[in-house]
From TrEMBL:
This is Lipase. It comes from Anopheles darlingi (Mosquito). GO terms for biological process: lipid catabolic process. PANTHER family: LYSOSOMAL ACID LIPASE-RELATED. InterPro entries: AB_hydrolase_fold, AB_hydrolase_lipase, Lipase_euk. It holds the Pfam family Abhydro_lipase. It comes from the Eukaryota. The active site is at S185 (nucleophile), D359 (charge relay system), H390 (charge relay system). GO terms for molecular function: hydrolase activity, acting on ester bonds.
Length: 415
């Protein structure tokens, strides 16, 4: 296998990102935000500690999926000026690939989507997909064992098992029969899987807000995906042969690299910024560089190699379909040599597609194709900043005014 010079450069940049990215504990994030310097590492309760520090109430909940994964959810039932009460409308928010529930609170009060939802009167539940730092447990598989089956999943299983389990649990705990859903990137992909393959869940969704929706991917511009997609079968085979199934596991070396290179006074902080731009699109004015250590406290949060492989397969095929195991295993699993497409026509929940012109992972043309396949689309909603990229949907400086308040307004209409 021979890589072009451009592909080698992209992969080198990605490897550099891995060594920089796994930064800080939440205590260090909180101290950083307060200008008090780093504190000891504790990566297990990042989201909860941010929420408590910001003056909001938080509950930690575990739910076990039908296939044995133990997932952690965080509930924010109330906050300053908006105490908990029975009967609140429920809002469920799901993170994207390599991310976690902390994405929705890390920007702080008045900025983060989770806090804005609480302030608007919602009972907010933050999901965590299998394999991230909050959900690395199974009833019998060990994620750290060499020949473990723990990592034998893609975002197909997240949509088929994880989302239904978390949604059912949140509704049971609150006594509600339906909820509002917002998801970013993979949080949209998994939603489309759930509502197409398990259509009974459409009735449990009042409205769904897809932030940077990802289903069709043939027109994406991210050089990260484009560089490795042609070799995805070889990469998948190699990782399996090496017994490496987890992508971006946490490590002390990565933490130290992030502390040294991405903080404000570091000379290489702009390298950290450019690595993020390389993946999702360039929009320098929307990235608060002072917040880089906070962002990198829990991103990357870990995932299965198969999640990335599945996206690369979608880019190669131009279709939104199930995981391709190869001709022989496809015949065994699906009864056909190619994996089946997801039946998007079975999605009846109201879906709003929020997109950005400069999103390198969710191209406008691909979002429009998705829009044309949905039976009950609320509409296509462009973020007005012409440079809005894939990561701005979670970390953009003006995400509150350009996006989140519009999302909440739509949710209110569908209550």
């Amino acid at each position: 296998m021979v890589l072009s010079s451009g592909s080698r450069w992209v992969i080198l940049a990605l490897v550099s990102a891995l060594s920089l990215a796994q930064a800080f504990s939440i205590r260090e994030v909180i101290a950083f935000r307060e200008g008090q310097g780093p504190q000891p590492t504790d990566i297990s309760k990042l989201t909860a500690e941010i929420i408590v520090n910001d003056g909001y109430l938080v509950e930690e909940h575990q739910v076990t999926t039908a296939d044995g994964y133990i997932l952690t959810m965080f509930r924010i039932p109330g906050g300053p000026g908006n105490p908990p009460r029975d009967g609140k409308h429920v809002a469920f928010v799901q993170h994207g690939l390599l991310c976690s529930s902390a994405d929705w609170v890390v920007s702080g009060p008045g900025k983060s989507l989770a806090y804005l939802l609480v302030d608007a009167g919602y009972d907010v539940w933050l999901g965590n997909a299998r394999g991230n730092t909050n959900s690395r447990r199974h009833i019998f598989h060990d994620p750290d064992a060499r020949n473990t089956d723990f990592w034998d999943f893609s975002w197909h299983e997240i949509g088929y098992f994880d989302l239904p389990a978390m949604i059912d649990y949140a509704l049971q705990q609150t006594g509600q029969t339906s909820l509002q859903y917002a998801g970013h990137s993979q949080g949209t992909t998994s939603f489309f899987i759930m509502t197409s393959l398990r259509p009974e869940y459409n009735q449990r969704i009042r409205s769904m807000h897809a932030l940077a929706p990802v289903a069709f991917m043939s027109n994406l511009r991210s050089p990260f995906v484009r560089a490795f997609a042609p070799f995805v079968d070889s990469i998948d085979w190699l990782m399996r042969m090496l017994g490496v199934n987890e992508f971006l596991p946490s490590s002390d070396m990565m933490t130290l690299g992030g502390q040294m290179l991405c903080r404000d006074e570091a000379r290489f902080q702009e390298v950290c910024s450019n690595v993020l731009f390389l993946i999702g699109g360039f929009n320098s004015p929307q990235l608060n560089r002072t917040m880089l250590p906070a962002i990198l406290a829990n991103t990357p949060a870990g995932a299965s190699v198969n999640q990335l492989v599945h996206y690369a397969q979608g880019y190669n095929s131009g279709r939104f379909r199930q995981f391709d195991y190869g001709l022989t295993l496809n015949l065994i699993r699906y009864g056909s040599i190619r994996p089946p497409d997801y039946p998007l026509e079975r999605i009846t929940a109201p879906v709003a597609l929020h997109y950005g012109d400069n999103d390198w992972l969710a191209a406008v043309s691909d979002v429009r194709e998705l829009h044309g396949r949905l039976r009950n689309s609320i509409g296509l909603f462009r973020v007005s900043d012409p440079d809005w990229n894939h990561l701005d949907f979670t970390w953009g400086i003006d995400a509150d005014t350009l996006l989140y308040r519009r999302v909440i307004s739509f949710m209110d209409r569908y209550n």
